[in-house]
Specification:
Elements: H1 2-17, E1 22-25, E2 28-31, E3 34-41, E4 46-50, E5 57-68, E6 73-82, E7 87-91, H2 99-108, H3 120-134, E8 147-156, E9 159-169, H4 176-185, E10 190-192, E11 202-208, E12 218-226, E13 231-238, H5 253-265, H6 272-281, H7 283-301
Antiparallel strand pairs: 1-2, 2-3, 3-4, 4-5, 5-6, 6-7, 8-9, 9-13, 10-11, 11-12, 12-13
Helix pairs in contact: 6-7
């Protein structure tokens, strides 16, 4: 069992520490040497995604912009149109320069990955999941709008592992699940960078007794994502044998989902996590945060409407 758990974590690390090998040949996209989808560049702003087997149109990616009257500039966004269900989504938090960027986005969001055959039903399922990812009309402090059960897929060589990932959407900060674990169980045991050079790793806690009424220890992987229109905090949980504790039939699934939801709603004002996190992974960012706080406190100390009293003046008059 320990060997299985070690293998799983090895694959998890491989997935995050090594970016996917994406290549495009003759309009066919390959991810880690496996055929994924067909992609056609119609113009500098428009791309079409096809099903490799049926050559059916699946998605249309369009780079668009809209003039912002208030800021007097152009706001860029990506529109994704789903042909089968005649619906589109707008993403303001992703940047696409070429075909590889599109393939990387689709693969990271698990689009067309969870099903061997693409059907209208599977496309609708992908659309619903992405629609939750695409927009947050409002963000909530110490709360969330909804809970989504998503799938994390890790591929290393010939081995593939699918884990359930619970995402708490439209949160005030993507750090909620990481901070909740730090506040209650101390510093993380392992960190996994999503890609080389990243300053926002996923954090892992091992052998944690999460449930008071259950004599069992768990491994928690805390993650999160922040964008202009999408934000979530998430977690994955394994038991001591490396089994997924968030799959539909897992015995403590609802307790664990409810537990982390309560962690978010009862978030403490303690800021110790942020100091430990930024000083470890991005010291320069921590310096910037401290400087911003210093300036903010200085501004508060002196109101912008404050004026220095004028000095008394002596007037000399001729008699």
């Amino acid at each position: 069992m320990k060997k299985y758990l070690a293998l799983l974590f090895f694959m998890f690390c491989v997935h995050f520490c090594i970016s996917q090998n994406i290549r495009i040949e003759n309009e066919t996209a390959y991810v880690d040497d496996k055929v994924y989808v067909k992609i056609e560049k119609q113009s500098k702003r428009k791309y079409i995604i096809y099903d490799v087997k049926t050559n059916e149109k699946l998605l249309k990616f369009t780079r668009e912009s809209k003039f912002n009257q208030r800021n007097q500039n152009y706001d860029a966004f990506i529109k994704v149109y789903f042909f089968a269900i005649k619906k589109d989504l707008i993403f303001r938090d992703i940047t696409i320069h070429d075909e590889k960027d599109i393939i990387q986005f689709l693969h990271e969001e698990y689009v067309f990955l969870t099903h061997k055959i693409v059907t209208t039903a599977t496309i609708l399922e992908d659309y619903k999941r992405l629609s939750a990812r695409a927009k947050c009309d409002k963000i909530l402090k110490n709360d969330f709008t909804q809970i989504v059960n998503d799938h994390f897929i890790s591929v290393a060589g010939k081995d593939t592992i699918v884990l359930n990932e619970i995402k708490y959407l439209c949160v005030y900060t993507a750090f909620y699940t990481k901070k909740a674990m730090y506040d209650r169980y101390g510093k993380w045991h392992k960190s996994i960078l999503p890609y080389p050079g990243s300053h926002r790793p996923n954090l892992v806690w091992n052998n944690i007794k999460l449930l008071d009424n259950v004599d069992k220890k768990f491994t928690v992987i805390a993650r999160g994502y922040e964008g202009q229109r999408a934000m979530y905090a998430s977690m994955m949980i394994l038991d001591e044998q490396g089994k997924d504790m968030l799959h539909a039939d897992a015995p403590y699934r609802f307790q664990l989902v409810e537990l982390f939801g309560s962690y978010i709603k009862n978030n403490s004002s303690n800021r110790g996590f942020y100091k430990a996190y930024w000083t470890t992974f991005d010291p320069e960012r921590w310096k910037q945060i401290q400087e911003h706080k210093r300036r903010k406190n200085t501004t508060r100390a002196r109101s912008p409407f404050y004026q220095k009293p004028s000095q008394p003046r002596t007037t000399i008059r001729d008699n």
